[in-house]
């Protein structure tokens, strides 16, 4: 009988034997995962605002959805739906959670946006808020659809250090043919400038461009950029202007943005809210009333408030003195959603 040969070791440049990495000890809380332990939460990658899309084959494009940023955690013990700020909203999106349970995977983290679609098939932020019972409401949305655009963890593997092109390939295979409350956010192909024009003419909010070769990095790194047809951002309400003629007694809302750790005025918004909105805002802001404004503002009819309520505002651009141009109120953001108030440094970078 021939003597069995031994395996020949791999040698590096110095002729030393190459050793494989030591096997990681398993997480006792997750004993069935042989590779990377599943994180409790992944800080989201955010998109920088730009006037024009980047060009070239290094970039892919998607529709920009107008809803709530969420992460779906599919775990051995069940499904969790986590907001951008890290709050568990599984109970607010039961249809999405149930659809995720049926995807047939042991473990995964999907990054995406929950939206409510209108009759044209476009995401409608106002409709999403109404489905949740408005700001502070406790209603569960049965209409919301989750559009997944990234895969951060899959079957025991942490994918955040993997380039986007690989993550998208796995995501597309995973969600192939998925319909209902969890769907794939499709890549759209073509020239970036033409895609923006098409999005705007179709009544969409805009597009997102993402660098194909980048890992998943938290914050506004520039790996992702957003190009909007109509700009829409979150601003802090720091008071309101009283009006005897306006519905609900609110002539306009006084708005502020961040500048680092400070607040800076960006003007006001006086259109877009209905009588019920204005009455709710006035009553709530009156409870938050303060004598000294958080930013230097003067007006005989101004009522100043603690910076607590976050408004989503559409606008057409910026004036030379740093105020919003042609602003229109869209609704209030949930405090629990921890929506990032706009920082004016992003405006200068755009």
TrEMBL record:
Alphabetical UniProt keywords: Ligase, Plasmid
ATP-dependent DNA ligase family profile domain: residues covered: 137-228
InterPro entries, per the entry: ATP-dep_DNA_ligase, DNA_ligase_ATP-dep_C, DNA_ligase_ATP-dep_cent, LigD_ligase_dom, NA-bd_OB-fold
Domain of life: Bacteria
One annotated GO molecular function: ligase activity
Gene3D superfamilies: 3.30.1490.70, DNA ligase/mRNA capping enzyme, Nucleic acid-binding proteins
Ligase as UniProt keyword: yes
Reaction equation(s) it catalyzes: ATP + (deoxyribonucleotide)n-3'-hydroxyl + 5'-phospho-(deoxyribonucleotide)m = (deoxyribonucleotide)n+m + AMP + diphosphate
Enzyme kind, highest EC tier: ligase
Protein EC: 6.5.1.1
Pfam families hit by this protein: DNA_ligase_A_C (PF04679), DNA_ligase_A_M (PF01068)
Family: Belongs to the ATP-dependent DNA ligase family.
Name used for this protein in its record: DNA ligase (ATP)
Gene designation per UniProt: ligD
């Amino acid at each position: 009988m021939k003597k069995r040969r031994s395996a020949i070791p791999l040698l590096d440049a110095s002729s030393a034997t190459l050793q494989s990495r030591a096997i990681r000890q398993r997480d006792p809380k997750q004993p069935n995962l042989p590779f990377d332990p599943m994180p409790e939460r992944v800080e989201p990658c955010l998109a920088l605002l730009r006037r024009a899309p980047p060009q070239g084959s290094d970039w892919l494009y998607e529709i920009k959805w107008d809803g709530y940023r969420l992460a779906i955690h599919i775990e051995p013990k069940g499904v969790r739906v986590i907001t951008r700020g890290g709050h568990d909203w599984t109970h607010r999106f039961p249809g999405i959670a149930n659809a995720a349970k049926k995807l047939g995977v042991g473990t995964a983290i999907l990054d995406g946006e929950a939206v409510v679609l209108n009759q044209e098939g476009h995401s409608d932020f106002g409709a999403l808020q109404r489905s949740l019972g408005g700001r502070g409401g406790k209603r569960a949305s049965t209409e919301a659809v989750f559009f997944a655009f990234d895969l951060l963890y899959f079957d025991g593997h942490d994918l955040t250090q993997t380039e986007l092109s690989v993550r998208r390939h796995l995501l597309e295979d995973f969600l192939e043919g998925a319909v209902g409350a969890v769907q794939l956010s499709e890549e759209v192909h073509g020239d970036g400038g033409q895609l923006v024009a098409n999005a705007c003419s179709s009544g969409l909010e805009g597009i997102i461009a993402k660098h194909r070769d980048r890992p998943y990095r938290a914050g506004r790194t520039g790996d992702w950029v957003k190009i909007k047809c109509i700009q829409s951002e979150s601003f802090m309400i720091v008071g309101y202007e009283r009006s005897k003629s306006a519905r609900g007694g609110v002539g306009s809302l006084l708005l502020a943005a961040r500048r680092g750790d400070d607040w800076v005025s960006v003007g006001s918004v006086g259109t877009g809210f209905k009588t019920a909105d204005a009455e709710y805002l006035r009553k709530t802001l009156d409870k938050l009333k303060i004598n000294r404004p958080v930013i230097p503002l003067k007006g005989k009819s101004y009522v100043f408030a603690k910076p607590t309520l976050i408004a989503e505002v559409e606008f057409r651009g910026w004036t030379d003195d740093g105020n919003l141009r042609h602003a229109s109120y869209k609704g209030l953001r949930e405090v629990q959603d921890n929506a990032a108030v706009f920082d004016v440094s992003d405006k200068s970078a755009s």
